[in-house]
Write a structure and sequence with these properties.
Blueprint: H1 6-39, H2 45-49, E1 52-53, E2 58-59, H3 62-93, H4 98-111, H5 115-129, H6 136-161, H7 164-172, H8 177-206, H9 209-214, H10 234-243, H11 250-280
Antiparallel strand pairs: 1-2
Helix pairs in contact: 1-11, 3-6, 3-8, 4-6, 5-6, 6-8, 7-8, 8-11, 10-11
Length: 284
């Protein structure tokens, strides 16, 4: 049997890789086009800035947008400091041993836990045990726990990617371990940390199950006044419009999905932009 020439092999491999990329990208493009086509007609200033009315069959989605941003902000306030500190400890202080490996494996496994399990966890811990009730605080903490593995993993990988010579030079000049981390490691790991954080924000903004148990309200006539109030949120609002409210216009449902999709895509675009900006400043 005659062996294929290297050029033919290369072309076949390239064709297979291209086909794989198209197979992955094409469904995403189709979904986006369908949402844009059906939802663009609903997008207006009134739709984005007014309260729902007529049983949510008319009006806007402003309280759901506000609730989503409140939940995401609360999740980041909780998860970013805790996740960054955990990543710094695992990367810079923890001894390489069985315990360290178990902790890292647990973090990786935690990232694969279904979001509905996090919702039940938040219901049991924050809503019932701590008696926060169904509130923005309980929902934000639940989302924060859910995105912790993403932040810890991305931050640890960003810290590990910084050359060890940076640490050695800093320590040799008399800097302490903490000063070395603060001035010689974190600035260079910042792109990866920010990227992981923004990707975590995108996941928190699009989840329904965790907020279903801890904060989401079917309808509220006003905006939340404190962290102990319930809130509407775009993922749950979209679920309600699609399953619980009859005779809702197709443009309203798809318009809500388009707003949610746009927010998530903008967050991912921000992650790519920030990463590119800081990578351009690297000198190594």
């Amino acid at each position: 049997m005659t062996a294929l020439s290297p050029k033919i092999t290369q072309r076949v491999a390239f064709s297979l890789l291209l086909a794989s990329a198209v197979t992955v990208i094409l469904p995403v493009v189709v979904v986006i086009l369908v949402i844009v086509k059906n939802g663009l007609a609903a997008i207006s200033w009134e739709f984005l800035t007014t309260m729902p009315r007529s049983g949510m069959r008319e009006g806007g989605i402003f309280p759901a947008i506000v609730g989503t941003f409140c939940l995401v902000a609360g999740a980041i306030v909780f998860a970013l400091p805790l996740g960054l500190c955990a990543a710094i400890y695992l990367s810079e202080y923890a001894r390489q041993g069985m315990l360290s490996r178990v902790v890292r494996l647990a973090i990786v496994n935690l990232a694969g836990v279904p979001s509905v399990v996090f919702g039940l966890f938040g219901l049991a811990l924050f809503v019932d045990f701590f008696r926060f009730g169904a509130s923005i605080l309980a929902g934000s903490l639940t989302l924060g726990v859910m995105i912790l593995p993403v932040i810890i993993t991305s931050s640890r990988e960003a810290l590990d990617a910084v050359p060890k010579s940076f640490r050695e030079v800093s320590l040799s000049l008399g800097a302490t371990k903490l000063q070395t981390i603060k001035h010689a490691v974190l600035p260079h790991a910042l792109p990866g940390i920010l990227t992981g954080t923004i990707l975590g924000i995108g996941r928190a903004a699009g989840e329904t199950a965790p907020i279903l148990f801890t904060v989401a309200a079917f309808y509220l006539p006003r905006l939340p006044q404190s962290v102990f109030d319930q809130a509407m949120a775009l993922p749950y609002h979209l679920y309600v419009l699609s399953t619980q409210v009859p005779n809702v216009g197709v443009p309203i449902r798809y318009g809500t999905a388009l707003v949610l999709l746009t927010i998530v895509l903008l967050m991912n675009l921000a992650a790519v932009t920030i990463r590119s900006h800081f990578r351009a400043k690297k000198k190594w």
